[in-house]
Amino acid sequence: QVQLVESGGGTVQAGGSLRLSCVVSGSTVSRFAMGWFRQAPGEEREFVATRSWSASSTFYDDSVKGRFTLSRDVAKNTVYLQLNSLRPEDTAVYYCAAGTPSSIRTGGYYYTNGYDYWGQGTQVTVSS
To answer: Closest Cα to residue 96, out of 34, 53, 17, 29?
Structure first.
């Protein structure tokens, strides 16, 4: 059974940084497209960043491009999201997700339907 566990959230001031981690068990990160989504109160879950299973492509939402960086450590079976220059509008619960190639081909990289497994989420709060 594939499980994803996020950590690293917290409360920071605007302009600060955090690094989120997502540890995968039950399979290997190289089998999946590994993505990050976020959900603010009263809002839909939205795409943040993702990397293809081959790691040949990494995609970011325009709102985080240049500020957030997704990386992975295959040896540790872990995916990271480095959050820099944080803004109050980045406040949300951040979710790690894993998508099989077939799900991504059907649902796409940018949509929740493309992902099969989800973590429980980690809260990021940015104060102004």
So the answer is: 34
Q: Say what the pLDDT of residue 102 is.
A: 96
Cβ–Cβ contacts within 10 Å for residue 65, how many? Answer: 11
Sorted by sequence, the CB contacts under 8 Å of residue 42 that are 6+ apart come out as none
Q: Which helix (H) or strand (E) holds 37?
A: strand 33-39
**92: which strand partners?**
124
CA distance 76 to 66: 25
pLDDT, residue 55, reads 79
Question: Do residues 3 and 117 make contact, with C-beta atoms less than 8 angstroms apart?
Answer: yes
3-class DSSP state of 109: coil
The SS3 of residue 27 is coil
48-94: per-residue pLDDT in tens?
A: 999 998 878 999 999 999 999 999 999 999 999 999 999 999 999 99
Q: Which amino acid is at 88?
A: P
